[in-house]
Design goal:
It contains 1 helix and no strands. It has one helix at residues 2-66. Helices cover 78% and strands 0% of the residues.
Amino acid sequence: MTQASAPNAPAATLTADTERRLTELEIKASYADDLLDTLNAVVARQQEQIDLMLRELGHLRRQGADEGSAPALNLRDELPPHY
């Protein structure tokens, strides 16, 4: 009878080990999924910021083109009011 239970013992150990490894993989997959969601949110927020900056840059370029006839001012050439 000892011989009959001996083959079952490694199978039970293998099943417990497989179950533990499967649980660890599920935990890692859960963390990876959470990280992916977090990174996706960061990328989406950064894309919104890039889009906003591109719109502002376009606005500044149009504003500069409208004032194109005025010479560019250099602050070093201007004297402070107390001089």
